[in-house]
Amino acid sequence: RSNSTTELSNQCTHKQSDHAFIYLLSNLLVDVHLHLSGFKISLPAGGITALEAVNLWKRHFAERGVTEPDHSSHYIIAYLFGAKTLESLDQRRLTEFLSPEKTEQMWKLCSRRLSRMPVQYVIEEWDFRDLTLKMRPPVFIPRPETEELVELVLTDLEMKLGTGAGADTQHTCLEVGCGSGAISLSLLKSLPQLKAIALDQSQDAVDLTGENALRLGLQDRLQIHHIDVMKDAETLLKLFSDVSALVSNPPYLFSEDMTTLEPEIFQFEDHAALDGGKDGLKVIKQILTLAPQILLNHG
C-alpha cells in the first residue's frame, strides 16, 4: 500500500494511539514480570545522584545477566537528562541528587532493561550514522554493521549520480525490508537528488519508517509500501521497474538457531526480520530472483 505525503502524515497520526496502547501494554507486562520474579532494588535513603545511579544499575544489570550492563546504565541515565552520553553533560549535574520525577522515570526505564528489553526500545530512539531514529518494538533494531552496507551503497550511487550520462538521470533506490527506515533514510540524507522506495512485510515497520521520514523531513522523496517480498512478488514486479539500486539487510539466520538468540533479540524483535529459513537464504534467494526484473541495465 502506497502512502502519499498527506496520507502518510494522517496515517501516522491515527496510528499514534494504537502504538501508545501497545507500548503501555508492553510496559505493564514488564512490570508484572519483575513483580512475579520477586526482584527488589533498594535505593539510598537520602536520594541518589546520576553517577551513583549508573553504578547501581550497572551492578544490578550484571547480576541479572543483562548484556552490556555498563553501556545500558550509561545510555539510560544520560537519556534522563536529554543527552546522548554522560560525557556531554556538565559534571556538576551528575553529582546532584535526582529529582523525584527523574528517580521514578529511572526506575521505570531500568526495570524494562532488567526484563531484557533492548536499550534501544527502552529509550525509544537510537543513532544510526548521522540520524537519530525513533525505535519501537518489535521493529528490527539497526546494527552497526549495517552502517558499512550504507557506505558501500553510497559509493556506488555517488558514481552513478555524479558522472557521465547517469548524472542527468533520475535515480531510485529500492530497499527490501526497511525496518525503522535506517538504510533508505541515510541514503536520502546523504544524496539530496536520490529518491527511494521502502518495503516491509511488517505494518509496524512501515509505520515506523513513515514516522522517522516525517521527523527527518525526508518524506517527499520516499515511497513506503506494505509488501511481503515472499508472498507479493507479482505485486512488487507490477509496481516497480527501472530501479537504479536494490539494497537489503534481509533475514539470514537458520531457523534452528533462532531459539539460541539472546533474550533481547528473541523476546522482543520481529522474528520475520531475523529468520532466513532452513538454510538462512530463503529471502535472499527471492530477492536475487526478482532483482533482474526490477533493476535498470546499469543497476
TrEMBL record:
Pfam families from the UniProt entry: MTS, PrmC_N
| Class of enzymatic activity (EC top level) | transferase
Gene Ontology biological process: methylation
- Is S-adenosyl-L-methionine found in the keyword set? yes
Domain Methyltransferase small positions: 169-257
Q: Report whether S-adenosyl-L-methionine shows up as a keyword of the record.
A: yes
InterPro entries in alphabetical order: DNA_methylase_N6_adenine_CS, HemK-like, N5-glutamine_MTase, PrmC_N, SAM-dependent_MTases_sf, Small_mtfrase_dom
Protein name in UniProt = peptide chain release factor N(5)-glutamine methyltransferase
Which gene is annotated as encoding this protein in its UniProt record?
Answer: hemk1
